[in-house]
Amino acid sequence: MPQGPEEFVSDPRYGEEFARAKDLVLGHPGRWRIIYHYDGDGIASASSALRAFARLGYPTQATALIGVERERMASLARATPGPLLVVDTGASWLDLLQEHPHPVVVLDHHRYSGSPALGERIAHVNPLDWGTDGMSEMCASTLTWLFTIHLDGRNWDNAPWGLSGAIADRQHVGGFRGLNATLVEEATRRSLLASHPGLGLRGPSLSTALETSVDPFVRGVSGHPDGVRDLLAELHLDGNRSPQRLAPEEEERLARALMDRLRASGVNETYVGMVRRERWSIPSLGIDAEELSDLQNACGRAGEPGTGVAIALGDAAALDRARNAEARWRRGILEGLLRLEAGGINSMRSLQWFESPESTLAGTQAGLAMNYLLDPQRPVFAFSREGPGPIKVSARGTTELVARGLDLASACRTAAAEVRGEGGGHRIASGATIPDGSRDAFLAVLDREIAGQLAPRPPAGGAA
Fold it and tell me: Looking at the domain assignment, is residue 283 inside a domain?
């Protein structure tokens, strides 16, 4: 097992990109502005960065960015009279960022269509450039955690934020892979993390945990008090008991019943497996990594990303605020999934779509609906907005669709450009910002693009 980050990847670009970014940070002490995406992965990334910069003695200012907003990024850069660290976003805007008169470091894991020759004041670190999949093997939070270790080996203690962001970005589903696995294994060896098997349920009682469960979302149980009571009566389990205090035989009985229901609903076996999964505890914080992930994700979606970051900086009051935000976040996701369970989906030839009044929750609703409720043969798009102005789009697919050729980043980028918007992201999860009134035209282009991506291909060597 490698002991230092320099040995983790053999591709020379790995070391070159980190060294370039490290030199810029260490060569420019003073105030840095950290720009981060407002979701759980972005908040966790900013958390690691802020802790590392504090260790260096650098003053910082952290600013959250919502959505695919080139003009907002340009405005922030213009307003910053010093260096920039951009995490979980920025790869698509290197042309804009290299105009900044001060150093810029971009830590991003999203696909990008190419970049200009970088000047001496800018560094772009992206796992895609050295053969690591940014969709499944490394997210922004694990990338930022790794970068902080390159800065100072003491930053291995950013393990909670690396792990929580990876969970928020769904890179724990099916087990950690690639560089994520390397980092988690080493952090476990250093006693910064501890793993144990457990149910994918959390709450003060079995009844509450089942009724509010969104991952897994179980038809007829999640959000259905009567369904919860019937299930617990069938299994002879007391709904007032804590899910963490079940006997092994009781836990097995409950897990088997939930898995049977998911299979009967046609849920993919990967997500059936989310009923019982590896759980990670964080000794330094005394909480579960999934709980931390949910708290940070909820803060971002509640419009309080700074509260999520403040948890990492030791603000005890922030933890209470985050728990209140998490309760609202979970209710909002559940309401959206229940609407879709009741039939609130629109279908086209190669995609499905819905509108969500919970604009900051639409992406999470889309992802969980794709896993537990909707037709797995077609990706889903969620449209949301707050008042007049542009429409936000969140797109989600499945690994099986990606294996067949789905590339939501490309489809969103192409369709958004057709209506004078912006799009991008990952093959399996992407997004866009499009002008008011352009939804139908955007959908028409998406439907065409995705149909082409998923069209059957002739076998290699066969007739064209």
Answer: yes
pLDDT, tens digit, 9 for 90 and up, residues 317-342: 999 999 999 999 999 999 999 999 99
Which structural domain range is residue 242 located in? 198-303+313-338
Assess contact for 129 and 151: CB atoms under 8 A. no
Task: Residue 392: give its domain's CATH number.
Answer: 3.10.310.40
Instruction: Count how many residues are written for the chain.
Output: 464
Where is the domain boundary, 135, 164, 192?
Answer: 192
Q: What pLDDT digit, counting tens, does each position of 14-56 carry?
A: 999 999 999 999 999 999 999 999 999 999 999 999 999 999 9
pLDDT given for residue 459 in this prediction: 65
131 and 262 together in one domain: no
Tell me, yes or no, whether 322 and 365 share the same domain.
Answer: no
Would 458 be classed as within a structural domain?
Answer: no
**Whether residue 319 sits in one domain with residue 202:** yes
Q: Are 158 and 224 in a shared domain?
A: no
Matching residue, tokens 């294994």: 185
